[in-house]
Every structure is written in C-alpha cells, then in structure tokens.
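Entry for the shared binder. Reason: the reviewer on the internal report wants the predicted structure included alongside the sequence.
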Amino acid sequence: MPAFKSIILIACLLSVLSASAADTVTGTVRNQTTGKPAEGDDVILLRLSQGMQEEAHTKTDAQGAFTLSLSSPKDAHVVRVMHQGITYDENVLGAAPLQMQVFDAVPKIPGVAGSMGIVQIQSKGKDLDVMEMYDIRNESTPPVTQGQERGYEVSLPEDAGIDFAQAKSPKGIWVNVQPVARKGKKGQYSINFPLRPGDTLFRIAYHLPNKGPRTFHVRLDYPVQRLAITLPPSMSFKALRPGTFRSPVTVNGMQLEAAVAEPVIGAVPAFEVAGHGVVAALPPPAPAVSAPHAPAPTSQVRAAAPAAAAMPETARNTPAGTLWIILAGTVVLLAAGIYIAWRFSRKRVFAGAAAGAGVQPLSMIDMLKDELFQLESDRLRGSISPEEYEATKKALNQTLERALARTAESQK
C-alpha cells in the first residue's frame, strides 16, 4: 500500500539521520512477472563520489538474495540490478535490507495508454517555449516491462530546437534522455526508455520561432485519457475545428484548454496560438541523472524553458472543471517544490555525484519531496484512505522539517 511504503521510507530516512552506516548492503530481488526469486541477475553497487564508480558486483542466489561489501560507507550509493537487459535501481538508505523488484522484458505491450497529457506553451519574445508532458501507464498482467527500444515517440515541428528531454520510471527519479531522430522522418524522435509496470512520465522541452500566429499539430504515440493545452491568459488560443476544445477555467495564472475527446488518440485536434506571455518566474528543471546506457542530451537547458512539472494521476470520474483546477494547481505547486528541492540538493546526500556521468546531486529532501508528490497523487486517485493520507503526510512533513533544519544549520 502507498501509505505503508511511505512509512518504510520515513523509517529509512530517519535511520540515515541518526544511525551509523553499515559495512554491507543486503537485499533480495523478486521477479514480479513469475512471482519467484530472481536468480542469477547481476547486482552492482555504484558509489556516487568523484564519478560513478562500481564498488562491488555480485549475482543473486537461488533465493534472489545478494550481499555487497561497502568500502566507502560514508558516500551515497545506488544498487543496480540488471534483468533481461533492463536496469532497476534503488537508493541505499540506512542498513535495512533492500526489497527490489524486477520484471520480464517484452518488445511491446498491448493496451499501453496515457492517463494525462499536458502541452504547456509560453513566450517571452522571439521564441515560443513548449513543454509536452505525458503520464504513460503500463498495466500489463502479469506485469512485464516494455523494452528500452520502445519508450515514447514524439513528433515535433521541423523548425523545433530541443532543449531537453527527461523520463521518470514508477519508482525512480527524473533522468535525462536523448531523443533519437528517426531515419527518413523529419521531426520524429524516439525516446528509448523502458516502460516498467506503473506510470512512466515523459517530458520534452523545445522552442519555436514566434513570428505570429502558430499552428500546432501535436501527435500522440499512445492514446491519452485527458489532454490539456496550458498557456498564459495574455496569449490567444484558437481551435481550428470548432467544438474540439473547451476552456474549463483559468487558475494560478494559466489558461487551460481541454480536449473534448476522451481519450485522445493519434493526432490532437489542430490549434493556433499567438501573442506573448509567461505563466510565472519559472525555476530551472529539476536535477536529473542520465539514463543508464543512454547519452546525455547535447543541447543545454535554456533559461526561458518552461518549468518541469510532474503530472498527477486523477480519478477517471472527476468532473472536467475540477480536473483542470487540480491540474493547474498541481503544475504550479510542483514547480515550486522542485525548485526548493533543487536549491537544497547541492550540499546533501549525493554531493559527490559523478559530473562526468551526468549525475546531479540527489538529496534526502529531493526524495521526501518526491514522496509527498506521490502521496498527493495517491490521494487524488483514491488509492489511499483519508486516515492513511493524514498520518503519512504528517510523518513526511515532520521528517522534511528536520532535514531542512539540519541543512540550514550545515550552511551557516
């Protein structure tokens, strides 16, 4: 249950604050596709200090168990399991044994679809800054992972300049990914990132010349249950075919134009935007690491790029007006939360991350923020009781306050 997982996380984080580090990392790996221990999988202990370095390497035994020796217990570590060519990572937090899950890999999963999509548009002047964000759900039964060669494909205008692309696995953090141009198909890119069971998030930021009214032809790789275009009220929006979009509400400085069709399949109804305006003074994207075995993006994040925002899962029976109020508020709040986490992440747990490998600092505060965001998502989709929500949120906030206080003290 989400609440139980949150409580376990809190306990682990508290142990980091107070307990001394152990000299071994232990755990078990279970294949959730077969329901059996994952025997013979490679397990790697990665130390994030002065570069991402392999500190220990072993294989799981017949019970899926592993033991790794820690030679630098004061540094931050990640345990990586390789199963059928797909990596599964867990942060080492305290001395508690890790319970890791892996899934069999398949080339393609029928019925993969998105729960939500957002296309955020704004402009400070000569460019339109666009971020497309999608929540893609893998509900395979039995659970399997769709292999790395088939994550998400995007179709961008031919004159688009890509600023960055990132992905987030169900239990992971945001990682940088490289959109790969499809041969012979201009403006079409593949993001090679596995679709593990659960919700995988994708976001791609790009810019376009702003030379007057601009027509958008957004194309979806997977069906998306609900899709919205967000832009500042100072910019104009026009559906090129009447009746394809509705404007539920303007909130938190954003105008939301919701696609009438639910789900949206293939081509999003064409629309036109014009004018200038920004939603807010937006922070830079959240710290992220490079995806395993994938090159980091060559283009740099521009200061004018839209804020990176995670997308909540919302109950399917939520009224349209309520849905987009929640959506708008969540985008703004998460952008602020990401900025807070980004500010404090530079001097905490992963301060020795590997610059050469593209790894940015990941702090305890980052993890707590991410868990709070997940808790809100669980509440919105009704997968957690009100009592569990209140108890878990209280415990997470107390731990966050303690971590912030310790961080502030260390910076004096």
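Summary line for the report: Residues 320-344 form the longest helix (25 residues).
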